[in-house]
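Is S-adenosylmethionine placement plausible here? Inputs below.
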Amino acid sequence: MTELATIGTLASMRTDGDSWDINASVGSTALFVAAARALGGRAADAPAEDPFAELFVRAAGGEWVDLLDGRVPDHPLLTPEFGIQFQQHQVARTRYFDDYLHAAAAAGIRQVVILGAGLDARAYRLPWPDGTVVYELDRPQVLEFKRETLAQAGRRPIAERHEVPVDLREDWPKALCDSGFDPALPTAWLVEGLLIYLSPAAQDQLFDAIVSLSTPGSRVAIEQMDPLPAEAAATAEQDDAGADWVRLIYNDPRGEATEWFTARGWTGERVDLTDYIRHLGHTPAAEQSLINLVTIVRP
Ligand SMILES: C[S@@+](CC[C@H](N)C(=O)[O-])C[C@H]1O[C@@H](n2cnc3c(N)ncnc32)[C@H](O)[C@@H]1O
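Reply from A.M.:
I modeled the complex. Tokens:
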């Protein structure tokens, strides 16, 4: 197994206070999904394109560059049984959340919070209306890699961008408010590729915080995954990359986002990933998915 072929080569079981940079543990998942976005976005009919994904993956160097340049043909991101499906998943979710943010901007929302932002470059990539402020929350070293890469490439954000280095299991609302976030303004929250790396209790805390910081008219878009069935988890554990990833996630039953927010007076809808891929006019690479995408609004 090459170094590149594993997610989080140094991964071990998660603990409440664990931390990471872009090359280790949960941090390396940001690079992994960026690589999937870069590869999946190359198809002529790709439903979304994120040119920044390739910028970040090349900046990571080493075998990540070999992957992009076709020198690691057996990489997990290229296998028919996992990689092609995962690329499709990443590009489809990019499109879903891009459309969500376009709609939020069209509705007049000018405050955006991206939780577990990783290598999300939407502050640089989307045509934000004047006056839009984007807050990006992630671990300090992940944001540091991102900042240095973008600065070296001479890129400037389109929205006003604020980095908020935090641990999302701790008191991040205070750090967010200290960075200039205004809870009196309607906000578009984004929770993409994050929840499985939080325990169910930490997820509930995160949702509670979103509710308490959201004025009417705010909305949240969420990617969530049903727990892996025991058989699928056992299969994943049989190869190195899958085993490393399974050790990074909290594969426990947890609150379903649409029900959770609806119970607190928000209204929303969810779509299964495979149905959404069909809706985009593509054939899903997998018949079924554990992933669904949710948009919920506070009336
Ligand atoms: C799979 S990546 C997704 C990144 C980005 N949202 C995307 O879709 O490209 C997960 C991100 O969540 C961040 N993350 C996970 N748990 C976190 C925590 N407790 N505190 C801060 N960031 C966290 C990781 O550092 C990583 O950047």
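Short version: The chain has twelve helices and seven strands.
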